[in-house]
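G., the chain you wanted modeled:
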Amino acid sequence: MRRRDFIRTGALVGAAGTLMPSRLHADVQDHLWQGYNFGCPQVTNRLDQGPFGISQDEGWFTIFTTLPSSEHIRNFGTGLVATSEDFGIQGAIPSHPELLDWLATEFIKSGYSIKAMHRVMMNSEAYQRSSDDFTENVKVDPENKYLWRMPRVRLEAEVIRDQILNAAGNLNLTVGGPAVYPYIDPALYQSSSKRTWPGKSDEDTSTWRRSVYVATKRSIPLPMLDIFDKPDSVGSCPRRNRSTIAPQALIMMNNAFLLKEAQRFAERLQKEAGPDVNRQIDRAFALTLNRVPSQSERERSAAFIKGDANGLTDFCQALFNLNEFVYAP
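Predicted structure as tokens:
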């Protein structure tokens, strides 16, 4: 077509040269990708390029398979390519190119199963390492680029809310159905506008569903999710921020939803563990931290619970506020 005129056609223009990104050419791959052999062909149109993008026999296909790097973020807090939103010429170099290649190959062999990919990652030695620092390793790799320890990864906002509901024993695991509208204080959104939110009381069991079913309204975010960096739905979000700010601690201490769930958690402990304080403590640690308390933790927890009439409820809320509760183990 002629410039600025899609009605009048001009001379037919054919392909000229290669459509492959310059990053894949042999003259630059040694410089940009540290000798990683992509084995890319020289093609003249996108139709020819397509088969190589999914071929299991061509190592370079992995740059078109961003899913392994994205799922690596979920488990390790960082991707095999730091710029998960950009695998192009301006993107970062993979930290472990051979691993990325292998994961992409396994992803195809498993029938594109994301569960299988997670299983491989979570059964790896790297995932099962502790998060402890070692002075010698810090000197060599302070950013933990090579995963000599398990990165400290805070859970996503929705997972934190779901864990609280699960510990309290009232997480609704129903699959499918309409979105739910948990309660939001009208003072947060009714100021000078006519915005509406058909929120239901925290006593309504429909609001106990998993957070993936919580309605998203761009102008009225759920505070519990918003404060823990849930994306605002305005633009795409290849990877989430993980901020650490004072309002997060304040909402975990003062939010009505948290206070009510702590009370329900205490009621569950009384029902399942009986009046024995030590059994209540053991059960609470198992449900929230997935471990047995140390002797010191048990003694201090028992003293705290016995020191006040609402001691068990306050103890449950304290467990919700632990770093160990909101960070991946």
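Residues 56 and 240 are 30 Å apart (CA to CA).

Shout if anything looks off.
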